[in-house]
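Sample pair:
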Amino acid sequence: MLLLETIKEKSKEIFDEIVSIRRHLHMYPELSFKEYETSKYIKSLLKNWNISYAENIAENGIVVVISGDIEQKNDNCLNTIALRADFDALPIEEDTNLNFKSKNPGVMHACGHDLHTASLLGVIKILNSLRHKFSGTIKFIFQPAEEMLPGGAAQMISQGVLKNPNVNIALAQHVYTELDVGKVGFRKGQYMASTDEIYINVEGQNGHAAIVEGSKNPISVASQLVYELNSCFKKKKSNKHIFSIGDFISKGSTNIIPKTAKLKGTFRAMSEDFRKKSHENIRKIVSVIEKESSCKVFLEIRKGYPSLFNDVEITQKTIDFASKYLGEENVVELDERMTAEDFAYFSKKVPSCFYRLGVSNKHDKNRYGLHNSKFNPDEKSLLIGCGLMSWIAINHLNCQH
């Protein structure tokens, strides 16, 4: 039997088990940096499968290393490839009728991380049984805290997850509701934006609105900041970006000037150079307005995930492998996205490819997107997720370029 057919057959054999794993994960979601039971569950499965692992990386992170039995004879071959899945959930109350809906109030796997983890566990089962079919080493990275700054990826990298053995390339797949099951999407080069959080506190002097002497209105200053910052970024048309103030709080009344005004916003960019210059521009604007006013202005730019860049050569090879596994008609090109992903930290360290797995059912008229309380991916996508990633990993390691 050809290797491709073998992998597809093994994916079918383990499908029911992987679905059961995904449903267990879905029923017991945990928030970022609190995935203690999820981590225990993953480790219990690995123990039952006699798979050794390293634990307590970024507290709840887990790493499995599996090496192939074939001796590498070509020095141009990759030695080690990393496959990553995240397993934290979101602070969302689930609103579905599933018999395996979340049992943890206010927490839900509304971004598909349960599916990512179940799929990677399936890849372990498949590739562990096919050691005699590949050379090199595969690192399976189960990562906590993708949804919350500073992100589990950066922490795992700082604790050496890409070393011993050194990783040559990294891959990850993410559910995508804009594609039907059986299709996958790729984008070479720049794909996702960086993400930064903007916090501005304006401190004035409260008082009676009809007695202007002695009062300092922070609302006026905060409003000027919103206008000037938005105007600045509207002029920056040459670089794709988003600047938005999404929260403005100041508690006064019709005849009361409040003491403080608070702004919160987001800034996203595709270019890291533009990101850096924009941070400088934000600081300059805030500084000028503070000097012109009689209020104190406190700015915090909470730097988030970097922009995600898919290595062009590695992504093209991955596209070629996916096309052979699924057929060219089921591999599509994606547009850039202004959303963010902490897998970007991996892409800054090693050549990487972050691709999308179709999880929608074309016959389902009620499709709900990511971070929606009714989000319900088609579990048939697990069949594709397990098999395709196994196929891609083996082909990268075996130098079938």
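The radius of gyration is 24 Å.
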